[in-house]
């Protein structure tokens, strides 16, 4: 049987994790399909082939499901009605709210840096214009502004992008594992001083702040990533600090916890990063690494790690990260 995933926003059932469930294809009829997509908050699938997407039986009333000889069927005109996503008001924020948000972000800066504030003002509108609020990932309790399949930039060529390498506009599998683990393990961040190195959209830092870390810094050498992280922190009603300094090779003074989400994608960089992380860990810092199996996290390196958790990636992340179906959270020994 081919692998199928439930397309409902925030539902992670799949034929791998829940083989006992039936999965019903989106209706071929455009009008019915549009009703389904609205109910499951997946209007981004409007122009996708309906035969490629399914909704699991957990979202249908028992009365709508008929036992068939081989597999269950749905009564005509059934609609998904159970366990559907609640879209929060702030998830539909528009570009016009960007200036308000940036003012709030600036107030969270300990020592406002003028150049940084100017950059923040300039990029916030762009970020709002080209991203949407998304909860279609492993941590639906966090809303993040991302480029998703519903955004025109999703299919844009590199030269058409208004940002250079917008890594922050995607929620990488490694970062998803890091944030998921933090949100599931309440005490792990309590009273910690946390730095999220290569924070991208800032989800790791935001999860740590939500779980009552004492101090949280979202760090990325890309200043637009730190701006996006601030915006996302504000959307999730937590306060974080940001920095675009390169901390790699430093003692990371002032921090006792280091988060790394999906940074083992480059062999040369992985060498540098891993040795540095080991030195931090042997100096007593807790180092958590989220990674879906990138080549930089070699077998030899994994011997120095403890596997804390493994997660199936939601369908949209599998599509985004060709080949990766799972992601893991590791801790340096
Ligand atoms: C693959 S993305 C991962 C983003 C995020 N952690 C996640 O999992 O969604 C890697 C990020 O690392 C950042 N980066 C690369 N080198 C860095 C460095 N020396 N210090 C801090 N960030 C760095 C990039 O700008 C990029 O945002």
TrEMBL record:
Out of the domains of life, which is the source?
Eukaryota
Keyword annotations: DNA-binding, Metal-binding, Methyltransferase, Transferase, Zinc, Zinc-finger
Coiled-coil-forming residues are: none
Please report the stretch or stretches of sequence annotated as the THAP-type domain: 1-83
Name the family: Belongs to the methyltransferase superfamily. ETFBKMT family.
PANTHER family assigned to the protein according to its UniProt record, in alphabetical order = ELECTRON TRANSFER FLAVOPROTEIN BETA SUBUNIT LYSINE METHYLTRANSFERASE
**Name under which the protein is recorded:** ETFB lysine methyltransferase
Organism field: Chilo suppressalis (Asiatic rice borer moth)
């Amino acid at each position: 049987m081919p692998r199928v995933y439930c397309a409902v926003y925030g539902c992670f059932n799949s034929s791998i994790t829940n083989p006992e469930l039936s999965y019903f294809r989106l209706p071929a009829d455009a009008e019915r399909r549009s009703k389904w997509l609205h109910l499951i908050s997946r209007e981004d699938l409007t122009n996708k082939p309906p035969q490629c997407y399914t909704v699991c039986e957990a979202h249908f009333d028992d009365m709508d499901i008929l036992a068939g000889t081989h597999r269950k069927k749905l009564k005509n005109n059934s609609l998904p009605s159970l366990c559907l996503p609640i879209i929060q008001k702030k998830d539909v924020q528009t570009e016009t709210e960007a200036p308000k948000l940036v003012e709030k972000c600036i107030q969270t800066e300990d020592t406002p840096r003028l150049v940084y504030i100017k950059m923040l003002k300039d990029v916030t509108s762009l970020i709002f214009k080209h991203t949407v609020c998304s909860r279609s990932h492993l941590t639906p309790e966090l809303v993040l502004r991302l480029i998703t399949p519903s955004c025109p930039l999703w299919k844009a060529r590199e030269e058409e992008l208004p940002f250079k390498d917008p890594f922050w506009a995607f929620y990488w599998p490694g970062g998803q594992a890091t944030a998921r683990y933090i949100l599931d393990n309440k005490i792990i961040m309590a009273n910690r001083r946390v730095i999220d190195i290569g924070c991208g959209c800032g989800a790791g830092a935001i999860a740590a702040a939500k779980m009552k870390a004492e101090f949280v810094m979202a760090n990325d050498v890309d200043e637009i990533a730190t701006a996006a992280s601030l915006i996302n922190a504000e959307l999730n009603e937590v306060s974080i600090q940001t920095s675009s300094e390169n901390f790699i090779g430093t003692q990371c003074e002032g921090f006792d916890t280091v988060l790394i989400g999906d940074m083992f994608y480059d062999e040369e960089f992985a060498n540098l990063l891993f040795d540095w992380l080991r030195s931090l860990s042997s100096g007593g810092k807790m180092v958590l690494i989220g990674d879906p199996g990138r080549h930089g996290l070699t077998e030899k390196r994994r011997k120095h790690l403890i596997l804390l958790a493994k997660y199936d990636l939601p369908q949209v992340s599998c599509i985004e990260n060709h080949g990766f179906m799972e992601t893991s959270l590791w801790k340096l020994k």
